[in-house]
Specification:
alpha/beta; 8 strands; globular
Length: 315
């Protein structure tokens, strides 16, 4: 297969992926990166059929320096997993973000997640200019990231309208938690795909045309979360009603304290990572009672066992 055809196939695979796992970054007890656990986690995601997002907020990307960030992306690329890889671009300094993209352009990745600059609260013009320069720099399809709870400002609909014709503007991760905002993007920005950035919102957004999910839950329940997403997207209303209240309650347990604290605690309990260590200002000691989390871990496992035939049919 020539390079052009290979790139086309990768782009098609990327755009067809309905579940992206915002992968946690495992640390050793001394706070260094635990690459062995990264291999375990990334391989499990690929084996489940899930795309992988590296260095997002769930991956504590901003707690890592640029060399650490690059080392993680390079390491996962060299695993040569049969699944698409997305890399987060987040920060405040535009030249630094462009340099980061240029550095990653040389790696075997498939997409970028472009965040709104934090704290500055730019308006329509500022955000349009910001994203336009990042899109121009990228060599791969890009997903915009609307997360006002972290960035301090939402991405205006007018900004997305102005960007949706850019050849690298492929999708948006919509994590405002506001269905009306999702519907505005869907109505006025029809040329981009919309992904939920909220695990619990999938059953509500599926009838409104959501493409898929960028997930925290898939870290701890990779196969079950894919089955959940497929059922939301393809199941009957009666089947989707059966997702409640289990999945809503399980998601709440996974966000009982700041993300990704519960996810790392559960992954450690599942023996998928060597420690539940996080970098300051986050700490696993924040979660003083994990009984509810462990309870829902068992319930999700039982749910998957009962729904494997359905999951396979929608895969």
């Amino acid at each position: 297969m020539n390079t052009e055809n290979s790139t086309s196939v990768r782009h098609m695979r990327t755009k067809a992926c309905s579940l992206w796992t915002a992968l946690v970054t495992p640390f050793n007890q001394d706070n260094t990166i635990d690459f062995d656990s990264i291999k375990t986690l990334a391989t499990a995601q690929a084996d489940s059929g899930n795309g992988i997002l590296l260095l997002g907020s769930t991956g504590e990307g901003l707690a890592l320096n640029k060399d650490e960030q690059f080392a993680i992306v390079d390491y996962v690329c060299n695993l040569k997993l049969n699944t698409p890889l997305m890399v987060a671009v987040a920060g405040y300094n535009l030249p630094d973000q462009k340099q980061w993209i240029k550095r990653c352009n040389s790696l075997a990745i498939d997409a970028y997640l472009l965040g709104t600059p934090m704290y500055a609260k730019p308006g329509v013009v500022g955000q349009t200019q910001w994203f336009s320069q990042l899109l121009d720099t990228a060599d791969f399809p890009c997903m915009l990231y609307n997360v006002p709870s972290r960035s301090g400002v939402e991405i205006p609909v007018k900004t997305v309208q102005a960007l949706q014709d850019h050849p690298n503007c492929w999708a948006m991760k919509e994590a405002s938690g506001d269905i009306s905002k999702f519907l505005q993007y869907r109505q006025f920005c029809p040329k981009i795909e919309l992904f939920s950035g909220e695990d619990a919102m999938m059953p509500y957004l599926a009838p409104a045309g959501v493409k898929g999910l960028v997930s925290v839950c898939a870290n701890v329940w990779p196969q079950a979360t894919l089955a959940y997403v497929n059922q939301c997207l393809h199941g009957s209303p009666e089947q989707n009603q059966e997702l409640f209240p289990l999945w809503d309650n399980a998601v709440q347990a996974l966000f009982s304290v700041a993300n990704p604290i519960p996810a790392k605690v559960l992954l450690h309990h599942q023996q998928c990572i060597s420690t539940p260590t996080l970098r300051a200002p986050l700490t696993h000691e924040e979660l003083t009672d994990k009984s509810e989390l462990l309870n829902y871990d068992q319930q999700i496992s039982l749910w998957l066992t009962k729904n494997i035939p359905i999951a396979k049919r929608f895969a």
